[in-house]
Amino acid sequence: MRPGAWQSLLLMDSIYRQTRFLTSVYHPGRLPLDTGAEAAFAGRSNAGKSSVINALCQQKRLAQVSKMPGRTRMLNFFTIDDARRLVDLPGYGYAQAPETMRRHWRLLVEHYLCQRRSLRGLVLVMDIRHPLNDGDWQLLAWCAQRNLRMHILLTKADKLSRGAAITTVRRVENKLRSRAIDTSLQPFSALKRQGLDETYRVLDAWLDLSSPPYQGDQR
Ligand code: GDP
Fold first, then answer.
1. Is residue 51 within 6 Å of ligand 1 at its C-beta?
2. 46 lines ligand 1 (CB under 6 A)
3. What 3-state DSSP class applies to 77?
4. What is the number of other CB atoms lying within 10 angstroms of the CB of residue 98?
5. What is the pTM of this model?
6. DSSP 8-state class, residue 91
């Protein structure tokens, strides 16, 4: 291999690949230092959020930490580098969740979304077959209230035909517009690694990064 080739290969690699688990937080008062820049991920449980984070970071089990017993109700922080973090917010929409759990989710997530200064934007992950449930609307409302940037991933797009996926994207866009919610959105599939490039562009802009184009994107 020619001299310097390893360095150029490393430069082509996505910076998100170096992401590592930092800490889990249950109490709003225990958040890590509020400096640098963060992007948060939210979604109904089973929407596909962990798969999105793993696909973006090109790791098989990174987000599994958020599914460990006790951590499903926490904010899980991951560091990309000294100044940048990804944050996995607890899932919602469990039909059988007791009232105390719902109240805790509300307190923790609302506090985080509304107070966190280093938070640059929220990626809302929704199963393309079941978009815009009550929890999704609640999050969109908190973000809109704070003027926080939002990006929606309609994931598991591989479950629909291309035509049906496009129709759903338009339908969701219209519903958001009708409630004056200003957000970008895109279809995504962790399984097919579809839509990664577009998501990297959004995250890069929020976190002041520049990722090389993802070579394997299927769009
Ligand atoms: P989370 O609870 O929101 O973190 O969801 P997971 O990432 O654990 O995914 C829930 C289920 O959906 C799992 O069985 C995944 O294998 C599946 N899943 C996630 N992403 C995709 C996708 O892009 N396509 C398909 N077909 N299945 C997916």
1. yes
2. yes
3. strand
4. 9
5. 0.91
6. P
For residue 150 the two structure tokens come to: 């939002």
Tens of pLDDT, residue by residue over 87-104, are: 999 999 887 778 998 999
- The CB-based long-range contact list for 199-206 (8 Å cut-off, 24+ gap) reads 199/52, 199/56, 199/123, 199/151, 199/153, 200/14, 200/16, 200/56, 202/121, 202/123, 202/151, 203/16, 203/39, 203/56, 203/123, 206/37, 206/39, 206/120, 206/121, 206/149
Single-letter residue type at 9: L
Q: Nearest-CA neighbor of 49 among 135, 116, 108?
A: 135
What type of residue is 76? N
**CA nearest ligand 1 atom 28, residue:** 156
Give CA angle at 148 (145, 151), nearest 5°: 120
Q: Which of 41, 44, 45, 46 to mutate to test the pocket of ligand 1 (most atoms within 8 A of CB)?
A: 46
Going from the Cα of 5 to the center of ligand 1, the distance in angstroms, rounded, reads 36
When computed from its CA atoms, the radius of gyration of the chain, rounded to whole angstroms, is 17
Specify the amino acid at residue 86.
Answer: L
Tell me how far apart the terminal alpha carbons of the chain are, to the nearest angstrom. Answer: 32
Query: Tokens standing for 125?
Result: 């992950």
The pLDDT of residue 8 is: 43
Q: Is the CB of 135 under 6 A from ligand 1?
A: no
In the chain (219 residues long), the average pLDDT of successive 10-residue segments reads 46 83 96 97 96 97 90 95 97 86 93 97 98 96 96 98 97 97 97 97 94 57
